[in-house]
Amino acid sequence: MCIRDRYRGTRGGLSPYMEFLLSSDPRQAMDRGHDIKRAAGRRASTVERLAQGERRTAALASKARDALNVQQTLAAKQQEQRDTVRKRLADVERLLASLTGDQLTQLRRLEEKGIGDAQRKLLASGALGGPQAPSREGGKALEYAFQQVGKPYVWGATGPDSFDCSGLTSQAWAHAGGTIPRTSQEQWKTLPRVPLNELRPGDLVLYFEGATHVALYIGNGQVIQAPRTGDRVKVSPIASNPLLGAVRPDADKVPMSTYELPDVMS
């Protein structure tokens, strides 16, 4: 815009300083200049608030996308793990189905011999300590578990017609009024640990390095467990698998004054 245009009345583009110089009323020009500066400041503040809001929105959207990606990754990993387990179970079932009656009998005898040797060694070591009574809640968990003896093992099952190992233990404690994690790994990870020489009925006994199997201790060196594919819920020696340790779902409960071990069923 040239100077001529400015003098022809299109003075809206002048800076406050030029308007001051050219105005017939310097005071009015100064006031207008201050108003313009204040309005510009308010606009800048508004723009900055909007920009901050956009940045916060963008950050939240980014975090939401990241959380969704993590969730999808975990879901995919869990699905992959489930598929792997199912494939291994199918392989075991096919192998068992391919064995003759004599081969199955021989396999069972070898397994029982190994378990018997391990059980005798464990009991002779004194590692289990003396007999103890369960808490009232522990007694209820045992009562439920005994009622499931004979039902088939099915991976992922939580009853009432079939169970896997942690399905049995979690449901037993649920019926006793306690809530414990669903899987053996989480049971081992989150519940209070207890030494084997302080075991009491109702405690959970974990097996293998990865806590991949769990059973319910009933006392007298025995457990109730849902062993594996092709087997049923039954009473077994505590040394039926390589021991990892034990946890106590009712660590805050006192034991009953008297307790009678139910008839052992195998």
> What CATH architecture of the largest domain would you give?
Alpha-Beta Complex
Structural class by secondary-structure content? alpha+beta
Give the H and E element order: HHHHHHHEEEEE
Strand content: 5-15%
Q: What is the count of helical runs? A: 7
Amount of helix? 40-55%
Q: Alpha-carbon distance between the termini?
A: 103 Å
Which class of the largest domain in CATH terms? Alpha Beta
The coarse silhouette is: elongated
- Determine Rg (CA atoms, Å): 37 Å
Q: What is the typical, i.e. mean, pLDDT?
A: 83
Largest sheet: 5 strands, antiparallel
Q: pLDDT below 50 for ≥5 consecutive residues: which ranges?
A: 1-12
CATH superfamily of the largest domain: endopeptidase domain like (from Nostoc punctiforme)
Instruction: Work out the count of structural domains.
Output: 2
CATH topology category name of the largest domain:
endopeptidase fold (from Nostoc punctiforme)
Give the neighbour order of strands across the main sheet.
4-3-2-1-5
Query: What is the β-strand count?
Result: 5
